[in-house]
Amino acid sequence: MHLRSKPWAGDWLAEHSNIVIDQDRATAQIGQWQSLFDQKQPIHLEIGSGKGQFILGMALAHPEINYIGMEIQETAIAIAARKSFDQVGTLPNLRYIYGNGNGVETYFEKGEVDKIYLNFSDPWPKKRHESRRLTYKSFLNSYEAVLPEHGEVEFKTDNRHLFEYSMVSFIDYGMRWTAEDYTLDLHADEEKVLGNIETEYEQKFMAKGQPIYKIKAHF
Fold first, then answer.
1. Annotation-wise, does 112 bind a ligand?
2. 122 is annotated as an active-site residue
3. pLDDT (tens digit, 9 = 90+) per residue, 117-147?
4. Which of the listed CATH numbers 3.30.70.260, 3.40.50.150, 3.40.50.720, 3.40.50.2000 matches domain 8-218?
5. Which residues form the signal peptide (predicted)?
6. Is 38 annotated to bind ligand?
7. pLDDT band at 174; cut points 50, 70, 90
8. ∠ CA 145-140-42, rounded to 5°
9. Are strands 43-47 and 115-119 parallel, antiparallel or unpaired?
């Protein structure tokens, strides 16, 4: 969903360039992301952070991990980063990228990211838009380029078609990925929901009684 632009967003991002890295700076940061955090720790990346509830919740719950939220919409990334900053200031283990998630290998080198999260991505339901889905083969290739061997992608959606498409995509793509850990109703599974951090969309769909689908895939 495209958010209505906020007149304050651009200025706020410019004033807080220490926590929000724009696309040009992000490409120059390749291989050096640990330098932006207080401690050298595993890096987890969320592609499509929206208003940032998930990535902030993860950073607060897991101080032993460094988190990066990536978002292409200026308004969304500004809302996410400002929400974080207003609540807790500059977290030592949380940064943001204001940039396009298509081609993450232009921002990170092999093994620099330990895990990737895809939460409630746009399903792009029309066949002609298949290549825009974040579990399309070209995206999986990009994820392989930045994850270590056996690196993991964690995927959540409310869209049954996108879930089924993603399962097939993980399994079929080069026969390299496995997606054996999945659920058709996350919040009905006491084991898999343990430690789950909800996104804004997740709460919205749960309130409507819709099941949340989840996949953990690795290669």
1. no
2. yes
3. 999 999 999 999 999 999 999 999 999 999 9
4. 3.40.50.150
5. none
6. no
7. low
8. 50
9. parallel
